[in-house]
Amino acid sequence: MTSDDIKTSLTTALNEYFDQVTLPENGLFVLGFSSSEVMGAWMGQNSNQAVGETVINTLLPILKKHHLNLAVQGCQHINRALLLEREVADRRGYEIVSVVPQLHAGGAGQVAAYKAFKDPVEVERIVADGGMDIGDTQIGMHVRWVQIPVKTSVKEIGAAHTTFLTSRPKLIGGPRAIYEWPEK
């Protein structure tokens, strides 16, 4: 899998995702990502910084076009902490924690995002509006309820399985409840 192949697959997948989903302006998009899985190895066994940089550098301009912020999930060695811009963490009231991602403690995606972000910080918990998982890293814990899977034609990037999520507010109430504001 070349950088061009990764970029093409990722761009196609994200364009299909955003054809189906509209996340709120200034919303939060979470990326779970294993460069090892993209390369055909078990998660954490073949981390590849070039793959991380290709993914992050492809993803950021697409998210910017949709007025979205990126949070990158780290690996288990930093307890799945999330890297994002300090301004986003501050605006959302997230508690910042102390760790700097490394290739084998955070992962290639976090290291690439750390380099690409203006003022990166780590937080332990977020509530994202949607996201993408490359390599079955389990991003669901970071996406608000109710989560909705989104299908694209891109089932894998390299050897890594892809999954997309969006979300919607919970529908609460009983038989008399309605879920859309009536026309005025």
UniProtKB/TrEMBL annotation:
Gene3D superfamilies, A to Z: Hypothetical protein TT1679
Domain of life: Bacteria
Transmembrane regions: none
SUPFAM superfamilies: TTHA0583/YokD-like (SSF110710)
InterPro entries the record matches: Antibiotic_NAT-like, DUF436
Family to which the UniProt record says this protein belongs: Belongs to the UPF0340 family.
Protein name: UPF0340 protein IWT126_00731
Organism name: Secundilactobacillus silagei JCM 19001
